[in-house]
Amino acid sequence: MIRKYYLVIVLFLISFEAFSQKLYVWCPKDQLITSRVGFLENQEIDIVIFDGRLLTKNSKVECSPEETVLRLQEFIKRTYPSARVNLLESSSYFKDPVKNRITIKVGIAAFHAAFGADIKVGIGSIGGSFAWGIIPEGKWNALTGYSVNIYDYRENQEQKFTKEIAKVASKSNTGGYITAKNILNRTFMEANQELLFFIDNTFMK
After folding, report:
1. Which ranges in the chain belong to alpha helices (H)?
2. CB 3.0-4.6 Å disulfide test: which of 27, 145, 168, 193 passes with 63?
3. Tens digit of pLDDT for each residue in 3-44?
4. pTM score, two decimals?
5. Coil vs helix vs strand at 149
6. What angle do CA 151, 156, 157 make, to 5 degrees?
7. What is the C-alpha to C-alpha distance for residues 63 and 68, in angstroms, rounded to an integer?
8. 152 by DSSP, 3-state: which?
9. Each residue of 57-95: pLDDT tens digit?
10. Within 10 A of 123 (CB to CB), how many other CB atoms are there?
């Protein structure tokens, strides 16, 4: 009897580990770009992105951190075709910006979906103060969050501009994983639009 009881406990713990705090990550769809032709023309810009998410071991990840970073880098680069953009490795994120150019650092605090409050587990700590609001239980939730630092070190000046971007979407479980995938993609697109507007407003005269 004791042996049977012990077996039930073990199976429960295994089941709990398998299904609790499971996070989901899918690659985003290609986002339409409105190119800023002529904007920041011939300006040298270093772009470095750091993935600071805390994805759990049992997460379903169909878009690797490397691919997530690359997609965001390429999106920014193609938006500013007139600038001379350098895509740096993530290892450069904590290094000092280079003189006589613009440096854009984006820390990814969140880009994942989960059911209920489990979504909070994957949020990384990369500085800044994010306001996620109330995360509803019993629904699919998706988050995309960036901590953005822009350094303008041109013409012997040193200016820094910062912004936290937090996008949240929630929806009832009407379509299973498709629902989660769609709302995750929506938060990604919304966060990217806010990121571009921040870059635009920082350098518009």
Report:
1. 2-19, 65-79, 177-203
2. 27
3. 544 433 333 333 334 344 699 999 998 899 999 999 999 999
4. 0.86
5. strand
6. 45
7. 6
8. strand
9. 889 999 999 999 999 999 999 999 999 999 999 999 999
10. 18
